[in-house]
TrEMBL record:
It is a single-pass type I membrane protein. The lineage of its organism: Eukaryota, Viridiplantae, Streptophyta, Embryophyta, Tracheophyta. This is non-specific serine/threonine protein kinase. InterPro entries: ConA-like_dom_sf (IPR013320), Kinase-like_dom_sf (IPR011009), L-type_Lectin-RKs (IPR050528), Legume_lectin_dom (IPR001220), Prot_kinase_dom (IPR000719), Protein_kinase_ATP_BS (IPR017441), Ser/Thr_kinase_AS (IPR008271). It catalyses: L-seryl-[protein] + ATP = O-phospho-L-seryl-[protein] + ADP + H(+); L-threonyl-[protein] + ATP = O-phospho-L-threonyl-[protein] + ADP + H(+). GO terms for biological process: negative regulation of response to salt stress. It is found in: Cell membrane. It comes from Lolium multiflorum. Residues 349-629 form the Protein kinase domain. CDD domains: lectin_legume_LecRK_Arcelin_ConA (cd06899). Residues 1-28 form the signal peptide. It comes from the Eukaryota. ATP binds at residue 378. The chain crosses the membrane at residues 291-315.
Length: 671
């Protein structure tokens, strides 16, 4: 927006008249003007200088080796007509230099007071398009120089200087300002970095002092000028002179923009309204790149972080749910569970879902997401893959068995060093918890116990005889008998001990863990058979009837074997005293005695003297009576141990002190 106090209201077709008027004005009094943008300024332009559509005075159009001038159209009267001295004056200029190559300085611009508008003779580059090589006169030039010409003693490539009739400055200083707010400290400014700067040129008639002050646009005029030179301009300037700007461009071109300009003769230059200044062109999309400079790293960082996070999550997910799967498992497809399903079902194998821990590993309760079915998940650590195929094959084929007295195996899953088996969940837990609970707390009455015993016997018979091949359970004990919703006894963990037989030494922790259920010949040879299952079943019978563990540690040294204890009572004719006291006598005496005696029979040290599960079923059902048993003291020796010792076939001799396993083993080995 142009705002010429003297002629701003004039339309452009009256321009020729303006010159006349302007000159007249000059003659009449002191000129004062202010331009916030140059749209209607009617400046005299030559060379590369143009006023853009937006009202910006563009001194250099981007071409190399050009010069340009923008001159206030009318000459100004600089001298007092009566005294003849150069009057005080002041000018304010708002400009901006944008270097084509930031950091590389070239060329410069200048504010001048000159006797004529004809600069055809003036030289570009260091002569700023105003001066000639010699014979310069009547010139005041304020150079805004971004080029260091050592020949001309330029102090650096970023300086302001006062030149009078010469390219060598009267005074110069590096661009900057004395900041009022910090007590007059000098602050550097870079001229050609695209920053809007304000320059003040003041001359005082009496003092003959020229002050030049520079500051960033939004900083007010500093108190201390950048340059302050005493020079009597009355000896320099002509009576009337032109004021304006010059710009030169050589190789490294820069853009010189003037946004606003005000001048006051014999007084202060008017204030330039900053809000009305024209906008700078988007040079090299600078503001955009500034935005990008901030956003791009953030966006890039965010992208990288998210990619890394996703990768980490995927890797963790893969590692977390990683499984081992081999070709031969194809046929077990329907029985194969994915680890993720089991992980989700047990809420990540949380401790709160842990229902128990045994010799093989941990057992967790879970709920399958899709079917909402309750499952028991058994995690077993297993290092070797040796025998795994046989084991899985066996487990899965056994898993195909369906029987109301077996805990249904639903499937399995394999991970590195780990085998996971999935069973039906048994809501009433394992039998050992019900039997070996606190004293006086009755959880299972006799009828329930007897029902469970028959159930377990049915289950074991099924394993031994009803399927196409003999399945040996290998680990019958109270903790492997589980109670379903209807309090049926169900055998669990069949065949599992098998996994640990391969390659592991017989003295494994598991063997020790189920001590008391091991038949003497199993301890000796390590070979499981239906007879060893029957032996363990016998121990289970005593355990259920007496409510006691097979081996009781009374003191540190002394162990009491349940068999011996029952046998002793039997010998003494007080068998009913061994029945669980928690039952408080509420039991069927016949059934209890049957169970106890059958237990002892199953616990016979000679495998062949033990009944088969089929026999056991018949005894339990009362279909056939128990053979008459006769307790025989061990002191009778070999004879006493022999069955059918020439006496009655239906009377069996029975050794005392069953716990002498080694002795038993030796004896049975002799058979
Ligand atoms: N299918 C199931 N349903 C409900 N609870 C179960 C199931 N399987 C096992 N449990 C519980 O988990 C506990 C631990 O079982 P686990 O089989 O690991 O050990 P154990 O039976 O004591 O010894 P072993 O390792 O010799 O079998 C059991 O005592 C039982 O309470
Ligand atoms: C710049 O100005 C010079 C001198 O007037 C002229 O020759 C040249 O064509 C101009 N260049 C542009 C790009 O306007
Ligand atoms: C010239 O100077 C004299 C004395 O300083 C002053 O009175 C007079 O007003 C000035 N004239 C102009 C035109 O400035
Ligand atoms: C400018 O000056 C040169 C010589 O100094 C002269 O040849 C030329 O005609 C002048 N131009 C104008 C427009 O006066
Ligand atoms: C400068 O002025 C001197 C004396 O007036 C003259 O001899 C010389 O030729 C001039 N030089 C130029 C370049 O005009
Ligand atoms: C200002 O510029 C001078 C000369 O280039 C330099 O020595 C000084 O360190 C600069 N000061 C600041 C604050 O940039
Ligand atoms: C120039 O600056 C000095 C301070 O350095 C100040 O005293 C003086 O009044 C100034 N003169 C003008 C014309 O601004
Ligand atoms: C400045 O120069 C003029 C003319 O030569 C003279 O009259 C005046 O006294 C000078 N002023 C100072 C302060 O020297
Ligand atoms: Mg178990």
């Amino acid at each position: 927006m142009a705002n010429m106090k003297c002629a701003s209201f004039l339309p452009s077709f009256l321009l020729p008249l303006l010159f006349v008027l302007a000159v007249a004005t000059v003659a009449a009094g002191d000129v004062q003007f202010v331009f916030s943008g140059f749209t209607q300024s009617s400046l005299t332009l030559d060379g590369s200088a143009v006023v853009t559509q937006g009202g910006l005075l563009d001194m250099s159009n981007g071409t190399n080796n050009v010069k340009g001038h923008a001159i206030y159209p009318a000459p100004l009267l600089f001298r007092n007509s009566s005294t003849g001295k150069v009057k005080s004056f002041s000018a304010t200029i708002i400009f901006c230099i944008v270097g084509t190559f930031p950091g590389v300085n070239a060329n410069g611009m200048a504010f001048f007071i000159a006797p004529s508008k004809n600069f055809t003779d003036a030289l570009p580059t260091q002569y700023l398009g105003i001066l000639k090589q010699e014979n310069n006169s009547n010139l005041l030039v304020i150079e805004i120089d971004t080029f260091q010409n050592l020949e001309l003693k330029d102090i650096n490539d970023n300086h302001i200087g006062i030149d009078i009739n010469n390219v060598v400055p009267v005074q110069s200083n590096m661009a900057g300002f004395y900041e009022d707010s910090s007590g007059g400290a000098f602050k550097n400014l870079t001229l050609n970095n695209g920053m809007k700067l304000q320059l003040w040129v003041d001359y005082e008639e009496e003092e003959t002092r020229i002050n030049v002050t520079l500051a960033p646009l939004h900083v007010g005029k500093p108190l201390k000028p950048l340059l302050s030179a005493t020079y009597n301009l009355s000896t320099v300037l002509t009576e009337t002179a032109y004021i304006g700007f010059s710009s030169t461009a050589e190789l490294m071109n820069a853009r010189h923009y003037i946004l606003g300009w005000s001048f006051g003769m014999n007084g202060q230059a008017p204030y330039i309204d900053i809000s009305k200044l024209p906008k700078l062109p988007r040079v090299g999309s600078k503001p955009q790149s500034k935005l990008l400079a901030i956003l791009l790293p953030i966006a890039t960082a965010a992208l990288i972080i998210s990619i890394v996070t996703i990768v980490i999550l995927m890797v963790r997910r893969r590692r977390r749910y990683r499984e081992v799967r081999e070709d031969w498992e194809g046929e077990f497809g329907p029985h194969r569970f994915s680890y993720k399903d089991l992980f989700d079902a047990t809420e990540g194998f949380k401790n709160k879902n842990l229902v128990g821990a045994g010799g093989f590993g941990m057992v967790y309760k879970g709920v399958l997401k899709l079917s909402k079915k309750e499952i028991a998940v058994k995690r077993m650590s297993h290092d070797s893959t040796q025998g795994m195929k046989e084991f899985v094959t066996e487990i899965v084929s056994i898993g195909k068995l369906r029987h109301r007295n077996l805990v249904q195996l639903l499937g399995y899953c394999r991970r590195k060093g780990e085998l996971i088996l999935v069973y039906d969940y048994m809501s009433n837990g394992s039998l050992d918890k019900s039997i070996h609970c606190e004293q006086d707390k009755l959880t299972l009455n006799w009828a329930q116990r007897f029902h469970v015993i028959r159930g377990v016997a049915t289950g074991l018979l099924y394993l031994h005889e009803k399927w196409e091949k003999v399945v040996i359970h290998r680990d019958i004990k109270a903790s492997n008998v589980l109670l379903d919703d209807d309090m049926n006894g169900r055998l669990g963990d069949f065949g599992l001990a098998r996994l640990y037989e391969h390659g592991t030494d017989p003295q494994s922790t598991h063997m020790v863990g189920t001590m008391g259920y091991l038949a003497p010949e199993l301890v000796r040879t390590g070979k499981a058979s239906p007879h060893t299952d029957v032996y363990a079943f016998g121990m289970f019978l005593l355990e259920v009837a007496c409510g006691q563990k097979p081996i009781k540690q009374t003191t540190e040294e002394k162990q009491v074997f349940l068999v011996d204890w029952v046998l002793e009572h039997w010998t003494n004719g007080s068998l009913s005293k061994t029945v669980d006291t928690r039952l408080r006598g509420n039991y069927n005496t016949d059934e209890a005695c049957l169970v106890l005696k059958l237990g002892l029979l199953c616990l016979h040290p000679f495998p062949s003297s033990r009944p088969s599960m089929r026999d056991v079923m018949q005894y339990l059902n009362g279909e056939i009576p128990l053979p008459k048993l006769r307790p025989t003291p061990l002191s009778l020796g070999m004879q006493g141990l022999m069955q059918d010792n020439g006496f009655n076939t239906s009377v069996m001799s029975y050794p005392q002190l069953m716990s002498s396993f080694s002795a038993m083993s030796d004896l049975s080995g002799g058979r």
